[in-house]
UniProtKB/TrEMBL annotation:
Organism of provenance: Leptolinea tardivitalis
A biological process term (GO) from this entry: glycine biosynthetic process, by transamination of glyoxylate
Cofactor(s) annotated in UniProt: pyridoxal 5'-phosphate
Protein name per the record: Aminotransferase class V
GO molecular function: alanine-glyoxylate transaminase activity; L-serine-pyruvate transaminase activity
Record bears the keyword Transferase: yes
Modified residue annotations for N6-(pyridoxal phosphate)lysine: 189
Taxonomy, superkingdom: Bacteria
Length: 387
């Protein structure tokens, strides 16, 4: 029952990455591991485009990235502004509250992106220690305008935290150019490594803010005090211990980051844009709408199509799976049953796009939807032919 995995993480992984996962596990003090971890840290910094940033690669999921950013930058009584474009905005709000922050949300309807005026109004109304933005909220497929939002946050004195779990290595996230203080992602998405690693980069300003804390970090595992010497040691090609690194995942990460930088960030982002355009053209040609209200706020790492009238996910998604492609259901609580999600990131190819649209056509046909066979495929091929 081989099935192409086209959900917004985990994704299809490159065979060389999977081979690293399956290689005999070394000790975490082995010279080959020290070299791989050191190189993976350097490459993480390059990927996040933060020249003087401090990378952290930790065993855990994307939620650990969220937890680490919040735990280390927030002290009880601090204020936080969450630019909330979906489910993961709610989650980071809960994490901030857990560490004692007073949280304000700018929360437009599902599928919308808040206007810069709305965000500025909120920033003016209070003083915020941190502002968080979800680059691509995986529950809506909305792509946030990090460049302009981060500039606003900075102007009002907030440390800017970006959840890049569904964006880093697929969408351009330039921490240096855009003044982002902390960004993080998880291994299983566009980074292209099985689930289990959180990658985070802290800018020098974020590290200085952390060092100036008056209270201890509320999480023992996430505390940068514990991890900073470890990350610095491995990058200097020395070993250090706090918690046992996820050895095989780190080897696999280094392979994947090598491939990503070999492709080149610009080329990689362009490829994601092209793939996204083709998928979205296919979906539109079939007469389906999408959750993001306009094209300019739609992510390039995923697509969130709305079910056609009269067709439910309970019928469509299993029919698509039967045709060989696995897709994901809705996640945003307000519209959960109205849409589904296609992930298209990492090593995704033109062939994967055609397989996915073909399987969606098969599924729709099985559900009795009326359309001319090949409609989505030819719309996608047209995009590929144009660029
Ligand atoms: N943020 C975003 C934008 C995500 O898409 C996800 C995972 N879907 C997370 C955070 C949490 O990551 P994880 O599931 O790996 O904990």
């Amino acid at each position: 029952n081989r099935s192409l995995l086209m959900i917004p993480g985990p994704i299809e992984f490159d065979p060389a990455v999977l081979a690293a996962m399956g290689a005999p596990t070394t000790g975490h003090l082995a010279p080959s591991f020290i070299e791989a971890f050191g190189q993976a840290l350097e490459r993480t910094r390059t990927l996040f485009q933060c020249k003087d940033g401090q990378p952290f690669v930790l065993a855990g999921t994307g939620t650990l990235g969220m937890d680490t950013a919040c735990a280390n930058l927030v002290e009880p009584g601090d204020t936080a502004l969450v630019v909330n474009t979906g489910y993961f905005g709610d989650r980071i709000g809960s994490i901030l509250e857990r560490y004692g922050a007073q949280v304000t949300h700018v929360r437009p309807a599902a599928g919308a992106h808040p206007s810069l005026e709305e965000v500025e109004k909120a920033l003016k109304a209070g003083t915020y220690r941190v502002m968080t933005i979800t680059h691509v909220d995986t529950s809506t497929g909305v792509l946030a305008d990090i460049k302009n939002l981060a500039a606003l946050g900075r102007r009002y004195g907030a440390l800017v935290i970006v959840d890049g779990v569904c964006s880093v290595a697929g969408e351009n996230l330039n921490m240096d150019a855009w003044g982002v203080d902390v960004a993080f992602t998880a291994s299983q998405k566009a980074v292209g490594v099985p689930p289990g690693l959180a990658l985070l980069v802290a800018s020098p300003k974020a590290l200085a803010a952390f060092k100036a804390r008056k209270t201890p970090v509320g999480s023992y595992y996430a505390d940068w005090t514990n991890w900073l010497p470890v990350m610095q040691a491995y990058e200097a090609r020395k070993s250090a211990y706090f918690g046992t690194p996820a050895v095989n995942l780190v080897f696999a990460l280094n392979v994947s980051l090598g491939q990503i930088l070999q492709e080149g960030l610009e080329a990689r982002f362009s490829r994601h844009i092209r793939i996204s355009r083709a998928i979205k053209a296919g979906i539109s040609a079939l007469g389906m709408g999408q959750v993001p209200l306009t094209d300019d706020i739609a992510a390039h790492t995923m697509t969130a199509p709305r079910y056609p009238a009269g067709i439910s996910g309970a019928d469509l998604l299993p029919a698509v799976t039967k045709a060989g492609v696995t897709l994901a259901g809705g996640l945003h609580p307000d519209i959960k049953n109205e849409y589904f999600r296609i992930g298209h990131m990492g090593a995704v190819t033109q062939g994967d796009v055609l397989a996915t649209l073909g399987a969606i056509e098969s599924g729709l046909a099985a559900c009795g939807y009326s359309f001319a066979a090949g409609t989505a495929l030819s719309a996608a091929m047209k995009v590929f032919a144009e660029n």
